[in-house]
Amino acid sequence: SLLFFNGVLSFLPQFPKVLDNKKLQTFEPFYEDEESKTVVLHTAVFNKMPNYIYSDLINKLNDENIKVVIPSVSSKKSLKSLDDNLTVLGHSSGSITALELAKNKKVKNLVLIDPIDNRFINSEDDEDEEEYINLENIENALFIYTKKSYDWSLFPFSLPFIPDNLSLKPKNIKISNEDNKCVIDVKRYGHCDILDYPWGKIMHHSISEGLENRDEQKIEEYHDWLATIVAGCVINGTLSEDNRIDYSNRE
Length: 251
Hints:
Blueprint: H1 2-9, E1 24-27, E2 37-42, H2 44-47, H3 55-63, E3 66-71, E4 86-91, H4 95-101, E5 107-113, E6 133-135, E7 140-146, E8 173-175, E9 181-186, H5 197-204, H6 216-236, E10 248-249
Parallel strand pairs: 2-3, 2-4, 4-5, 5-7, 6-8, 7-9
Antiparallel strand pairs: 1-3, 9-10
Helix pairs in contact: 3-6
């Protein structure tokens, strides 16, 4: 399912991007002030997915006084123009590229949503990749997993969208203080519900099941919840769950 997903998305149109420079694309809060924080977002399919399919989440992060920056695929030097105390956010197979950027000392917070461990794809030899990713500069790490991404059943038969062996686990990432990790399981949502409603709907009815009784308002509420959780980590360093919708922490 995962490989098919990457293949399908690779053919979606790549609309022209309005860039601040060749390395960064920036979405700023309407009232940006000195309290504003910056999130560097890495999209799915190795950070190659266009920003417009995440536009609702980006807008809601802006509403939380968070600047959202989307770097180019190869952008290790792009953080030089940004302030300190950055947060890196990775979704899906964009998580590994996000983790590479998170090694920069300017990055203090890490947020991963349904992270996929696709390190084997870029492996240059036959040896196994390192089991652990060391990020001593990271002070807080938040992991969000949507339950429907990992579900499978016999009757009717269905495979998980993300196989367990490709799911990047919190234990695989070492940060400065292991007590500052938070893991949240999202009960009723799926891998592509993070996308804007039309795109998530396409994926829901094809290869990636999401919220069952879906409508645009419920998807927007989910995006609002995500933005609130991310903002808590980014602005206040708080790693806790907001129970306005039916979610639950992983036990």
